[in-house]
Amino acid sequence: VAHFRMAAAPCAAPRGVFAAASAAQRLRVNLGRRDGASVHARVAPRVRSRGSVTVRAAITDPPEISSPPKVQGPAVILPQVPIHSEAGDIMDVFPEDMILEPGELGAVSRGVMRAEDSERLNWYLRAILTANVYDVAVQSPLDAAPKMAEKYGVKIHLKREDLQPVFSFKLRGAYNRMAQISKESLAKGVICSSAGNHAQGTALAARQLGCDAVICMPVTTPGIKVEAVRRLGATVALEGENYDACQAYAKRRAEEEGRTFVPPFDDPLVVAGQGTVGMEVVRQLPSVEYVFVPVGGGGLIAGIAAYIKSIRPDVKVIGVEPEGANAMLQSLFHGKICRLNKVDGFADGVAVRQVGDVCFDLCQQLVDGVMTVKTDEICAAIKDVFEETRSILEPAGAVAVAGAKLYGQVHGIEGNVVAITSGANMNFDRLRVVSQLADGGLKQEATLLSIIPERNGSFKHFVELVGTDVNFTEFKYRVTESEDAVVLYSVSVDDEKDLETCIKILRENGINTENLTEDEATQLHLRHMVGGSTGVSNERCYKVEIPERAGALDTFLNAVSPKFQITMTHYRSDGTAQGKVLFGIKVPDTERPALEQALNSTEMQWEDMTDTMAFKLLYGCERSGACEINFGADEKLT
User: What is residue 284's three-state secondary structure?
Assistant: First the structure.
């Protein structure tokens, strides 16, 4: 493990450069420092490889500065920005390579602070103070959240960027960038790639500046977002299966047509535009102590940190990412830009595989740390904000609220906390899933699985053991020829201790019971499937992310059928660009490599779910007695 060379940071840099992880970590990595101190961080075993992950990446010197300074527009000199993402220097990781405890901050690996770094921070401060964003943006309200404060004991204030004209902060950076383009370049038009809020921000900025705009969007983009961009007067080009392909097309077309490409986050002027959010926060709430910011590519948190750490270095700036989209968390830990090999797209506004050079440079110097939140915690935050304001945030817009709640409760924060509600471009179709998962995230509902005898009277006895005062909110059961019946059900939860007592009573009476509230496969698929196992031999369960577009399902089926028999399916649209489909496939062990090769040929993300307890008990071999695996009372979810 490499050593870090540390130097005293300027007043703008936060204290506590390295965060110590909790004692419950699976694997501890000791990053030795020259002063003898140690740094601890947790790295979970990689799912798709055997053994644990070896951490080798830690910088000893900042990367070389790119040269010379670039000129943007008629009179704007951009700062010299270090290059962090040169070919061969990007580290490929999986989201599960780093799993934090609730409320835990990931460690930040910082290099030596040099004179040019301070000069660059001064440039950002001046750029933010003079940013030209208010031709299109408004100073968004900073609203106290008294209901959440009473409920969670945290004085949360909501910075309402969801109330911007395009319901997102993105128009700040896009307009600030475009306003600096020379008249000659502006006359040739602009182009960007985005499936969401940056697209609308760029389109509105183009309309304000009177220039032509082409917005490139992946073919999987929901129609509601495409129409929103067209209503703003921009031309929409649907290109590419995913964002990377779409961005490559946009950059290629920019060169061919002489258009200016407007980056979504990795640009100093875009970052400066987003930094005006931090400027407003300090002015609106001078007593602020913590600011929680959602992190995707890093433009928003980089801009906010650049301003706040220059003006109020005592204020903690904390990034929040979904657990399945933690590119910034891992990049800051390793001291180099990391690229996720897969990303959870539920909070699509922050589902980014790789953070930007410009953003990483600032975050590595200034941000106090990054934490992660689960999907159900994001949904719970959406519900909290709705009950507080009667506004519905998109999942990415609620990420910071989820983080502020969790961190505040775990660490007992008493001071004023600000959470950036970054957007409200919610697809109506997604509300079904959000509503379903919110109660689990709020710990108001638990999903349980119990095994009871398949005989008359056992159901009545089971209900009596659960308790007549317990409110059942869901119940799934289907008779089989087996001696045991598997029951999947949900109950309201007022106190987690009461739930633990209930489970204990059931187990003591011979009814094996497992809590599946946090099992994703159960929440998204298995709880909606009734019928149970049919005793199919050699059946395996796979989760496949299929793009929401015509022909995508055919691509998958052409790869696996008719060679392999499909034994089970479940799918329900949740309004995202990638549909999560559960397939049962009959495949002998000797043919599994061929099946996995076929799955890989589709270029779709997939995961083998066969070994999850929920599948085995509900639909797999354990239910039908077709396998030799036995679950004991203490067996845990894999």
Answer: helix
Nearest by Cα to 169 from 348, 397, 386:
397
| Alpha carbon distance 372, 362 (integer Å) | 20
In 3D space, the residue among 343, 339, 334, 397 whose CA is nearest the CA of residue 363 turns out to be 334
Rounded to whole angstroms, how far apart are CA atoms 428 and 450?
34
* C-alpha to C-alpha distance for 618 and 56, rounded to whole angstroms: 42
**Which pLDDT value is given to residue 66?**
46
C-alpha 399/C-alpha 540 separation (Å) is 34
Residues of the chain with pLDDT under 50: 1-62, 64-75, 621-638
- Tell me the Ramachandran region of residue 329: left when phi exceeds 0, alpha when psi lies from -120 to 50, beta otherwise: alpha
422 annotated active-site:
yes
Q: What is the pLDDT of residue 467?
A: 76
Which residues lie across from 514 on neighbouring strands? 449
CA 13 to CA 309: how far, in whole Å?
A: 6
* Alpha-carbon gap, residue 212 to 386, rounded angstroms: 37
Among residues 155, 159, 170, 225, the one annotated as catalytic is 170
Residue 350 DSSP class? G
Check 193, 422, 490, 533 and give the catalytic one.
Answer: 422
Question: d(Cα 514, Cα 152) in Å, to the nearest integer?
Answer: 28
Q: What is the pLDDT of residue 60?
A: 36
Let me know: does 486 contact 461? Beta carbons within 8 Å.
no
3-state helix, strand, coil in the chain (%, to 5): 35, 20, 45
Return the HEC string of 46-80.
Answer: CCCCCCCCCCCCCCCCCCCECCCCCEECCCEECCC
pLDDT on residue 626: 37
pLDDT value at position 534?
57
Cα gap 57→375, rounded to integer Å: 29
Q: What angle do CA 310, 401, 574 make, to 5 degrees?
A: 130
* Active site (annotated) includes residue 601: no
| DSSP string for 199-253 | HHHHHHHHHHHT--EEEEE-TTS-HHHHHHHHHTTPEEEE--SSHHHHHHHHHHH
At residue 221, the pLDDT reads: 81
Structural tokens at position 189: 């038009």
Whole-model pTM: value is 0.70
Token duo for residue 87 = 């070919």
Inter-axis angle of helices 268-284 and 299-311, nearest 10: 50
Phi, psi for residue 466 in degrees, rounded to 5: -60, -40
